[in-house]
Design goal:
four-stranded mixed β-sheet, alpha/beta, 202 residues, 32% helix
């Protein structure tokens, strides 16, 4: 029987495991040359690692190259190129805009500098758009992945977390109703706020 080291044996006093940020985000590309040029030249992200493999995980898993770019602060964005994989049709516009990667900058000046750099590389990019706590610009990479560069308009605080808890609680309550809507969410959130103000147990 294999023994378990006391240092890793689960127990009441053991700290809860937690993650330390995002190591990498991974996508599929059918355009490796354009992808490498876009991330290294337009975005200035160094190519830092590549893996090649065949027969990985299962015998019918396609041969691939998996390559990584350094996005700063210990974060990476990575791509799989699968040999022989037919290219998928483009996702719907809604899914395209929903599934995106946002890169962080600190200042308005940095955000505008990035927009000018992207335009100089011939990349179509939106004007800065402010929403809630951030201001962002949006553009696509050669694979049709929407990318965002964003700056904070103010620091996130405890009141934002408390508001998020109420919003998501209301969403959970209405999402499985016969006709969920943002209006029904707002009504449910108002009920939760009223109950909280009255001291009710939520």
């Amino acid at each position: 029987m294999t023994s378990v080291s006391p240092s890793i044996r689960p127990g009441a006093d053991a700290p809860a495991p937690h993650v330390h940020g995002v190591d990498h985000l991974a996508y599929v590309t059918w355009k490796p040359r354009a992808t490498v040029e876009f991330y290294t030249q337009a975005l200035g992200m160094p190519l830092v690692h590549a893996i090649t493999a065949n027969g990985w995980v299962t015998h019918d898993y396609p041969d691939f190259v998996h390559f990584f770019f350094d996005a700063g602060a210990g974060n990476r964005i990575a791509f799989f190129y699968y040999f022989g994989l037919p290219e998928e049709t483009a996702p719907s516009d809604l899914m395209h805009r929903s599934r995106h990667v946002a890169f962080h900058v600190e200042t308005e000046r940095e955000l505008h500098a990035w927009r000018e750099r992207l335009k100089a590389h011939g990349i179509r990019v939106t004007p800065p758009l402010a929403h809630e706590l951030i201001e962002s610009i949006y553009f696509d990479d050669p694979n049709g992945i929407q990318l965002e560069i964003t700056r904070p308009l103010r620091a996130m605080s405890g009141i934002d977390a408390r508001d998020a808890a109420l919003t998501v609680r209301a969403l959970v309550d209405v999402a499985e109703s016969p006709r969920p809507s943002v209006e029904s969410l707002w009504r449910r959130k108002a009920e939760l706020i009223r109950k909280r103000m009255e001291g009710a147990d939520l």
